[in-house]
Structure formats: structure tokens, C-alpha cells
Prior knowledge:
Layout lengths: L4 E5 L3 H7 L4 H21 L4 E8 L7 H24 L2 E6 L7 H13 L6 E9 L1 H14 L6 H7 L10 E4 L18 E4 L9 H12 L9 H5 L8
Parallel strand pairs: 1-2, 1-5, 2-4, 3-4, 5-6
This protein binds 3-methylbut-3-enyl trihydrogen diphosphate (2 copies) and magnesium ion (MG).
The site of magnesium ion has 2 residues, from loops.
Amino acid sequence: MVPHHIAIVMDGNGRWATRRLLPRLAGHRQGMESLRRCIRACAERGVAVLTVFAFSSENWNRPAEEVSGLMDLLAGALTREVPQLVADGVRVHFVGAREGLSDKVRQGLAQAEQATAANSRLILNICFNYGGRWDIAQAAARLAQQGEAITEASLGRALALAHVPDPDLLIRTGGELRLSNFLLWQAAYTELYFCDTLWPDFDEAALDEALADYVRRERRFGRTSEQLAQGAQPEAV
Ligand code: IPE
Ligand code: IPE
Ligand code: MG
């Protein structure tokens, strides 16, 4: 079965460029191409939700030149790519802290969300200036402000990704075996898939390998294999 929701840590752009003696930003540009290809491939395969990690809360620690290059790349892509996203039936959601982003980037994000709001073939969540800890903290702060009790359900509803179910499959390219503060709450029962392929090289064949691996997993959600064989529904709760 094709996962309903795929999340991706798009890692390895810098190394892709460095290996070619190119500036890191060239890797990020190529990474954008890879994302375009991946969006199309996911839509074609019937994936309903794609959530990508584009810029983490911690990526502000990078050299100023790389950070501003990434901001420009995003702002440019948002205006350039919107017509194609609309044509492909992709609905864009920005997920992350808007504070700290320039007016230009903020406006671009809001416009892309607005322009694609009527689409429903694929939901694309772009995690930008996002961190899993930020998300949990902002959700808890909001509940506290409203005087609401903090439960798993209320917190889940206050999180930035409340509009989609938890990811079924999380892919990290680039060979690192860590989450780097991505989807800490939502990945509780997500199947994890790590590959060495650098993000700019992650093509349809690499995606299909991840999907084939996912199909072989047994999602038990705490139950036993025997219970599943007897027809228990493999659901989280
Ligand atoms: C991921 O690629 C993209 C962002 C973090 C914005 P990297 O830039 O982390 O690439 P490597 O890990 O240095 O190769
Ligand atoms: C994670 O990659 C963030 C994104 C892909 C946007 P990093 O390259 O920033 O992660 P670390 O620093 O290796 O953990
Ligand atoms: Mg990296």
C-alpha cells in the first residue's frame, strides 16, 4: 500500500555541491529541482500528503551567506512554482514560525497558500523555520493561554500539522541517522527509512525503493503479530 503521508528530511545538498567543487548554494538549487520531481512522483503514486523539511530552527546557525541564499531561493521558488503547483492540484501549507522571516518570504508563503487553497490532489507541507520542539512548545503555550487542559488530544489539535494525519513513512536522505528536531510528536509511530543518497540525487527510483521497503514493514502499534493476523485493525489508538 502506498503511504498516505510521507515526510522527508531533504538532507545532503551541501555535500552534493562540495563533491562537485561547487558552492553549497548550488546544491540547494539542485535540491529544489529534486523536490519538484518528488512532488510530481508522489502525486502520481497516489500519496495524499507530503511534508518536507526545508529549513530547521537550527539552520539559522549556518553562515549568514548560506542562510540568506536559502531565503532568496525559497522566495523565488514560491512565486515561480505556484502556477505549476496549481496545475498539478497541489495545496501548499507553510509549517513553521513566521516570526523571524522577512516580509518578502512571509508574503510569498501566504500567497502560495492562498493561490493553492482550492487544490486537493496532494497536500504539500513545507516545514520552514520549523522545529519539533518549537511546535510542541507553541501548542502548549496556546492551550495555556486559552486556559485549556493539556491532553494528548488537545495538544495534537494545537500543533502546526493538525490538518493532516501523522506521517506513515519518514525518509531521510544523506546518510545521517537522526531526526534533527523534525516531527518529534508526529513521528511517534512513523516507519523510518534512511538512505545514503544525497537529496539532489533522490529520484523516482530512489522513492520507489523507499516505498517498496515500507510495504514490507509490519505496523503493529503495540499489538502482537498474532493479533494482526486475527484481523485486529493496525491503528495507532
Ligand atoms: C539539507 O542539506 C538542506 C538544508 C538543511 C537547508 P544540507 O545543506 O544539510 O546538506 P549537507 O548535509 O551539508 O550535505
Ligand atoms: C535537517 O538537516 C534540516 C533540513 C533538512 C532542513 P541538517 O543538515 O540541518 O541536520 P543536521 O545539522 O545534520 O542534524
Ligand atoms: Mg545536512
